[in-house]
Design brief:
Length: 421
C-alpha cells in the first residue's frame, strides 16, 4: 500500500495534490512519500520483532539524504556498496554500527573509511578481497568484521541483469568453495568472522528461491560449525519484488515468516537488505505532456521526462504504470507511446498505454522511488530533476533541480594556445 491516491478526481501525494507540487516545483520531478517509506520499513521491522534482527535498507535503491534520514530516525541499518554511500548514511544521521558494506570491488581507501567509521560488517566477495581487507585492517591496527557473500547457485527467476545468485554471475564465493575460504579467513590475524551473506537477485516475486538459498546457507553454517567456525548472523540480502503491473510478490511479513520457519530455533541474528520493496512504491516521477504527435503508425505523446531521468524502461524493458494526475472526465482513450526528448529510439517510459491525453497534461510514472533518480544521468545535457518529499500536507524540496551551471562546473576548455599554434 502507498500514499499516492486519487481524491476529488486528482492524484495526491499524501495530503498534497500532485498538480500543486508540479506548479510549485516544475516538471519533471520526483516526489516521495514519507509515510509510505515508513510503512514499508516498519513492515519488515515488525515482522522480525520476535527475533534478533537488523533491517539494512539498500542505499543504492534511493540514496537521497532525506530518504536515508527518514529511515535512520526509525533506527534502520543500511547496506552500502561504496564509500560515497557510507558518507551519505553518516550525513543523514545513520549509525555506522548498523551498516553492512557490500560490493564486489571495494577499494583500499573505501575499506579504510569503513573501518574508521566503524561499520558493522564487510560482506566480502572473494579470497583476494579478504587479503586486501586483512592488510588494510592490519595497517590501522584493528580487526575487520567480516561475513562472506556466498553464491548459492539458485535461479532467482528474475531479469538476467538483476539476477545475481547463479554460478555464472560475478557475485559472491561459490558455496562449494566457501568452507575453504572461511578456513583461510579464520587464519588471517586482522579479520573477525561474524556472518554469512547472500543476495540472489532483485524483484523476486516468490519466496521459493529465497528458501532454496536459505537451505544451502544453513547447511554451510552447520559445516562451518563442524570446522569450529561460529557464525553469528545470517544476511539474506535484499530482492523482494514489488507490484509494478500485475505481479503478486509476497508481503514482507509472509517472506519473513517463511524465512523464520526455516531457521527454526537457531540463535542466528537475521539481517535483510531490502531496497526496492521499501522505496519503489514510495515515489513517483511527475512529467508533463509537451506535444502529441500522431503518425499514420503510432500515437506519440512527447513528455518532458526521458530515459536520462528514469532509465528502467530503456535498460530492462521495465513496465511502470503511468497515470494521469487529473484524469479527463470525458474524451476517448487512445494507445500512446510515452516518449522523451532524448535523441534515441530507446527513449520511452511506456508504450501502448491507453490514456486520454491533451497537451499540457500532467502524468505520474508510478513505482519510481527505487532505481529512479539514482540511475539518472545528464545525457543530452539535461538537468536532473528535483526530488521532493511529501510529509502529510507539507512538501520539502530535498534536492533542487540541477542547473546548467551545476553541469558545467566540473569541466573546462583546453588552455589558450600560445603563439597561435
Ligand atoms: N543487497 C545487495 C548486495 C544488492 O546487490 C542489492 C541490489 C540489494 C541488496 C537490494 O535489492 P532490492 O531489495 O532492491 O531488490 N537497477 C535495478 C535493480 C538492481 C539491484 C541491484 N542490487 C532495477 O532498476 O531493477
Amino acid at each position: 500500500m502507498d500514499h499516492f491516491t486519487y481524491r476529488n478526481g486528482e492524484l495526491h501525494a499524501e495530503d498534497v495534490p500532485v498538480a500543486e507540487i508540479a506548479r510549485r516545483f516544475g516538471t519533471p520531478a520526483y516526489v516521495y512519500s514519507r509515510a509510505t517509506l515508513e510503512r514499508h520499513y516498519r513492515a519488515y521491522d515488525e515482522a522480525l520483532s520476535g527475533r534478533p534482527h537488523l533491517v539494512c535498507y539498500a542505499v543504492k535503491a534511493n540514496s537521497n539524504l532525506a530518504v536515508l534520514n527518514v529511515l535512520a530516525r526509525l533506527g534502520a541499518g543500511f547496506d552500502i556498496v561504496s564509500a560515497g554511500e557510507l558518507e551519505r548514511v553518516l550525513r543523514a544521521g545513520g549509525d555506522a554500527g548498523k551498516v553492512v558494506f557490500s560490493g564486489v570491488g571495494k577499494q583500499e581507501w573505501e575499506m579504510k573509511r569503513g573501518l574508521e567509521a566503524g561499520v558493522r560488517c564487510f560482506n566480502v566477495e572473494s579470497d583476494t578481497e579478504l587479503d586486501r581487507l586483512n592488510r588494510v585492517a592490519g595497517e590501522l591496527g584493528v580487526k575487520a568484521p567480516v561475513s562472506l557473500r556466498v553464491n548459492p547457485d539458485v535461479d532467482a527467476g528474475t531479469h538476467p541483469y538483476i539476477s545475481t545468485g547463479l554460478k555464472e554471475n560475478k557475485f559472491g564465493i561459490d558455496i562449494a568453495q566457501a568452507p575453504a575460504v572461511y578456513a583461510r579467513a579464520a587464519e588471517l590475524p586482522h579479520l573477525e568472522i561474524l556472518g554469512v551473506d547472500c543476495h540472489i537477485g532483485s524483484q523476486l516475486t516468490s519466496v521459493a528461491p529465497f528458501l532454496d538459498a536459505l537451505d544451502r546457507v544453513l547447511a554451510l553454517i552447520d559445516t562451518l560449525a563442524g570446522q569450529g567456525i561460529r557464525i553469528r548472523h545470517l544476511d539474506m540480502g535484499g530482492g523482494l519484488g514489488v507490484t509494478y503491473q500485475d505481479e503478486r510478490p509476497p508481503e514482507p511479513s509472509e517472506y519473513v515468516q517463511a524465512l523464520a520457519e526455516r531457521m527454526g530455533d537457531r540463535s542466528l541474528e537475521l539481517i535483510l537488505e531490502p531496497g526496492r520493496s521499501i522505496a519503489a512504491n514510495a515515489g513517483i516521477l511527475v512529467t508533463r505532456v509537451e506535444f502529441l504527435k500522431c503518425t499514420g503508425h503510432r500515437n506519440f505523446a512527447i513528455i518532458d521526462a526521458a530515459m536520462n531521468d528514469l532509465i528502467r524502461p530503456a535498460l530492462y524493458g521495465a513496465w511502470q504504470a503511468i497515470v494521469p494526475v487529473r484524469p479527463h472526465q470525458d474524451g476517448e482513450d487512445r494507445a500512446w507511446d510515452l516518449v522523451g526528448p532524448v535523441c534515441e529510439t530507446g527513449d520511452f517510459l511506456g508504450k501502448d498505454r491507453s490514456l486520454c491525453l491533451a497537451p499540457g497534461d500532467l502524468l505520474a510514472v508510478r513505482s519510481a522511488g527505487a532505481y529512479g533518480f539514482v540511475m539518472s544521468s545528464n545525457y543530452n545535457s539535461r538537468n536532473r530533476p528535483p526530488e521532493l518529499m511529501v510529509d502529510g500536507d507539507q512538501v520539502h524540496l530535498v534536492r533542487r533541480r540541477e542547473t546548467l551551471e551545476d553541469q558545467l562546473a566540473l569541466e573546462s576548455c583546453l588552455p589558450e594556445a600560445e603563439g597561435g599554434g
